[in-house]
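Progress report, Aim 2. The chain analyzed during this reporting quarter is listed below.
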Amino acid sequence: MNVTIAESWKTQLQPEFDKPYFGQLAEFLRHEYSTQRVYPPGRLIFNAFNSCSFDDTRVVILGQDPYHGEGQANGLAFSVADGIPKPPSLINIFKEIQDDLGKPIPKSGNLERWAHQGVMLLNATLTVRAGQAGSHQGKGWETFTDAVVNLISAQKDHVVFMLWGAYAQKKGAVIDQTKHLILKARHPSPMAANYGGWFGNKHFSQANAYLESKGLAPIEW
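Predicted structure tokens for the chain:
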């Protein structure tokens, strides 16, 4: 299992890597990847970090679990690889961007172009067994990603946090609201979005207006 993380994040997160829980998590993952089908591929576990450096991070979108279908998960929350059909949550995200900013829905559901602009697409759990949603929850990933959220909140200024659904909002409760913008909405999954509270949230235009007000470049959504 070939796993690497960008130096900008490794420097900041080394204290977490050195803690006993992370050693236990690493051992669990070694066993899982050698005996089960696990997503994403090992080389993409830290794709969110490798595609968006600590210094460049301007927006954080919190997800929960990687997609557990064949070929879907690419290490970025809500994103799928090129050529993979867009999942329902991602379709609803693109619909909101279309309504909010007038942008057409893209052919690909690969969100690497967002990550390269400074959007941290962070799942709470970075791995999952094929076909078994939530199967790697409670193994240590949540502790690690809580530390990531705390780090960004404490060490950076003027970051936009998009918290969609109750799970993300609970995880984001530690964010310093005095120096960051926190945007909350229902989860974009059809089950939640169709009850109201997702469509019309205008998070994408709000994020760009905030970034520009702080002298930062907007995101090309």
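The CA atoms of residues 123 and 216 lie 25 Å apart. DSSP finds nine helices and six strands in the chain. These observations will guide the mutagenesis work planned for the next reporting period.
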